[in-house]
Amino acid sequence: MRQNPQRRAVLLDAAIEVLAREGSRGLTLRAVDAEAGVPTGTTSNYFANRAQLLVQILHRTRERLLPDPADAAGSPDTKVLLARLLDRARRERNVHIAMLELRLEATRRPELQAELAGFLRAELEANVAWHLETGLPGDRRGVVLLYLAMLGLMVDDLTVPTLLDDHPVAPLIETMAERLLEEQP
Amino acid sequence: MRQNPQRRAVLLDAAIEVLAREGSRGLTLRAVDAEAGVPTGTTSNYFANRAQLLVQILHRTRERLLPDPADAAGSPDTKVLLARLLDRARRERNVHIAMLELRLEATRRPELQAELAGFLRAELEANVAWHLETGLPGDRRGVVLLYLAMLGLMVDDLTVPTLLDDHPVAPLIETMAERLLEEQP
Fold first, then answer.
1. Is A145 in Cβ contact with B149 (below 8 Å)?
2. What integer is the mean pLDDT of A55-70?
């Protein structure tokens, strides 16, 4: 397998675009070659097969969605962090759509399911630990509930953007944090 | 177009199974014929094209997920209703997976997006109105937040069932209702 990290990232980003635009069944090694504008066969020099590609896309989504260190610096406020998380999701819409495609593909492929479950569990536990260690308001269960409510909000916002037109998201996020973390408003 | 309602429902249920198992790109009129075990061409006698089929699947998912009237009878308790909602989602797993496929397909097809948005908005507003009219605890914003948190919970539970292994869902649902509706525990 070829190992040029920059080329590899370009191929994974092309794969994310294919997943978002065509759905998981549209994702083939050749479709990634075409999307990246590289010679046919390039992607198969980097990934042994489609299953390997799917797992590597999963890890690439995290690199693409890593929080900006500046966002969490200073005295973080949960509501501000959540609003930034949604802004980020909107700017990286295709990464999240690709992630939803991976979740659905994982319902059909046990090896991807195992990888995705391990990955998302580690991420959730790291988020909960960070929140509690930082001394932000809220308990463990409240942080998990906040994660679930933000997941629901992002699924709606990314797939059916007008669904919440009558429910502006800024106040929704504020009330979500206040009530789930039992902060004083 | 043929109109035998029973046959039509059988074809839509077969389409839901194809969507859940193969993803949206696997959904063709012929794949529905094969899944339903009917002669090739039957589905195209009932649905003019794939776009029509997608819209009708959307409406069929609601028939499949209609709450049991017994569930809401008597003096309903939000926590009990939410726990039943999750049980129902688990029993009708493929209907929910198909619905997630429709959400992703709707990011690519404007006509399906419009239909899905109108449909989900009407459903959300009906749920909020029912909750408030029934005199259950909680305000409008709290009910919308509860909808979002349950959506997140169901997306995780259906696509990555082991993700919340360390966070049993019964207490999560209880705390979600207590805090978002500001009920006394």
1. yes
2. 85
**Candidates A105, A117, A159; nearest CB to B163:** A117
pTM, rounded to two decimals: 0.94
CATH superfamily of A67-185: Tetracycline Repressor, domain 2 (1.10.357.10)
Closest Cβ opposite residue B155 in set A97, A125, A155: A155
- CATH 1.10.357.10 placement within chain B: 1-65, 67-185
- CATH number for the segment(s) A1-65: 1.10.357.10
What pLDDT score was predicted for residue A94? 96
**Minimum Cα–Cα distance from B181: chain A residue:** A179
Q: What phi-psi label fits residue A31: left (phi over 0), alpha (psi between -120 and 50 degrees) or beta?
A: alpha
Residues of B in contact with A185 (CB under 8 A): none
Measuring CA to CA, which residue among B104, B15, B125, B5 is closest to residue B61? B15
- This model of the complex carries an ipTM of 0.94
Q: Using the beta-carbon criterion (under 8 Å), do A25 and B23 form an inter-chain contact?
A: yes
Whole-number pLDDT of residue B36:
97
The Cα A169–Cα A164 span in angstroms is 8
pLDDT at B180: 97
